[in-house]
Amino acid sequence: MSYVTCLRCRGCGREYPVEPLNACDFCFGPLEVEYDYDSITRAVSRERIVEGPPTMWRYQDFLPVDADMALDMGTGFTPLIRAENLGRKLGLENLYIKNDSVNPTFSFKDRVVSVASAKALEFEFDTLACASTGNLMGSVAAHGAKASMNTLVLYPANLEKGKILGAAIYGATLVAVDGTYDQVNRLCSELADNHRWAFVNVNMRPFYAEGSKTLGYEVAEQLGWLAPDHCVVPGASGALFTKIHKGLKDLVQTGLIDSADTKMHIAQAEGCSPIAQAFNDGSKEVRPVIPDTLAKSLAIGNPADGPYALRTIAESDGSAVIAMEDEIVEGIQLLAQTEGIFTETAGGVVISGLRRLVNQGVIKPDEVTVAYITGNGLKTQEVVESVVNPVHISPSYDAFEEAMAGR
Amino acid sequence: MVKRRVKFTFPTELITESVIYELGHRYKVVTNIRRADVREDIGWVVLELEGAESEIADGLGWVAETGVRVDPVSGDVIQG
Question: Given Cys at both, which of A94, A310, A348, B80 links A368, Cβ 3.0 to 4.6 Å?
C-alpha cells in the first residue's frame, strides 16, 4: 500500500483527492503529494530497506505507488563512487559522484518515469505521453514498452535524429512538430489538457516528481546512513533539486538518519540559468529566459519549480552556480579523465559548477560533497567530437616509432 | 468555447500597461485572474482565458507582440 493522503496545492494549500491532476482549480498552483508520515515511520526501518530490491523501489514506502503496481526495470541504487582523483584535482578530500548515468535508459529520468508510469497503470490509462528533446522521451518509450502501454512522444521537428532513435527503438509513436520551441511547448500543454493520456510531466507531474527523492535516500544510505555536507545538482525545471532535498528531510522525519544539514547547490549553464540568475539577483521570482545552451537537457527557460528551488537554497543555506558555456566540455573531460565516467552536458555543468564552488570557498576541502551525474555521455557525443585527434601513420613499425617519439 | 490557463510575465517597461484590459476589449476573450505578483521590476499574472479557440489564439499572439511573455501555467512542458 502507499501512504499517500492527498494532493495539496503548493500555492494556496487546498487539498485534492489522489487523481491525475497537476494544478489547483482555484489558484492554478502546482499540486504536491502528501503522505502520512506517522504511518511511514512505523513501517520503515533501515533493515527493511536493505532487504528490499537493489533498485529505487527499496524506498517504496516513500513513493506514491501501491506495492503491487511498481514498474521495476532495475532503475536506481546506482553507484556512489568515491572520487579520489577528481577530488585531488579540485582540492576535495571527501568527494563522491552519484553516477545515475547507468540507469536502464542512461539517465535519472528513469526514476521519475518509473513512478509516473506505475501510477498511470494504477489510474488505468492506456497511453503514456511526453514532450521531450532527449532523455525523457527515451525513458517514457522504454517504460511504455515494459508496461504494454501505447506511447506517444512529441518533439520539435528539427531535433537531431540520434536523439529520436533512443525513443523510436522501443516502438513509440513519434510526432515531430514543426514550430519554435515555445510553439511546441504551448501545443503540448494544450494536448495534455484535452486528452486522456498520462502525460508524465503534466497531469502525472505530482507523482512523477516524487521519483527524484530516491536520489536523496540512496546517497544517505550509501554514505552509511549519513547526509552529505553538500550536494551539487544540475538545474532544469528545479524539481530534481528540490526533491533530493526533500528525500534527505524525509529520512530525518522518519528517524532513519539523525540530521540532514546538507547545503544544496544548483548548477545551471550560462545559456539557460533563470534560477541561478534569480539567486544572484536576490529575487524570489524566476524570470523566464529563452534557452541558448550546449546543455540541451537543462534547457528549460520557464522552470516550473524555479521558486521552490530558490526556497530550497534558502532553507539549506545553499547556493546557485553558473557554469560558463565554454566550461561545459571541460567539465565532461575532467570527469572522464579522472574518474572514467563519461557524462553528458548536464554532468559537465555540474563538474564545472563544483569547481567554481570550491574555488569560491563555498565548499571546504574536508566536507563530504556529492556531485550528481544524471546522464550518459553517449547521448551528447557531438559536443566532444573535437577530442578525437588520432596519430595517423602508415602501416610500418618505423612510422609508429617515429610518430610516438616524444609522446 | 474553450478555456486556457496561461501565465503572462511582464518586463519592467510594461508593468504599468493595461495589457489584460486591452486583451478583453480587442478580442472576444473573458479574462479571469487567479494569481499575480507585481513588483517594481517584474510582474506575472496567472489567468484563465475563455472564448473561441481562434480568438484566444489571436489574443495571445497580440499579447506576445506587446513584449509580454506568454507561457503555459505549468511551466515548460518539453523536457530534455
Answer: A94
